[in-house]
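#struct-help
A.M.: can someone run this one for me? Single chain, 229 residues.
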Amino acid sequence: MVALFNLINKQIKDYLLRNKLDRELKRSPFQPCITVSRENGSGGHAIASKIAKKLGFKYYDEELIDLIAKKTHLKKELIKSVDEKTHDTIETFVSSFLGFPPLPEHAYIRALTQIILAIAHKGKAVILGRGGNFIIPPESTLKVRIIAPFKVRLQNSLKFEYPGRSLAYVKEKLLKTHLERKNFVKKYFGKDIGNANYYDLVINTAYLSIDKVVNLIIAAFKEKFSLKS
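D.P.: on it. Structure tokens below:
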């Protein structure tokens, strides 16, 4: 009975949080920006970075962790350990064991949402992952999803992210990260990260170079917001 009560209580908290985030989305106008969701190993990081550089936009990836740590007054290492992951008992235990203060329920997601909304208010930004496309109103952002077949992502990760590691190790990492990001979006935004209907563009990088993908996204961004080339 206690376990059932805790589950129901948790679901209510998640529901109320999502409603609160929805209300926050409508409070102020936003400027055009780009959100990039990615399958790990698909080249999403390099693509997002190049888009920002080519457009002269601010690029947000690791910097989001610094901003969240500053806002929550928590150690960067703790924020990084739960970045794009769901909050659970094991992570709380490990954090406490390492000497970090336990992460308050929803502290990360609330800070993340407020920071991304502030970034979108200014515009001229490229935001990588972290459910950014579910936080910013669709009329204010070009929502991009970068994908690739698992074999392609595995080879990319072996070559660029985990050079020298075994195939089994990299495969496990890919599957684990994919599941963490999927669960993160499902828990905090109630969405399926792989549903193409949530994006303006879904691009498979198996047969396209990074530069071609970058140019395609920039063209779509200018078209959506009626910007001159």
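A.M.: thanks! The chain is about 60% helix and 10% strand.
D.P.: also worth noting: The chain has one domain: 2-70+105-224.
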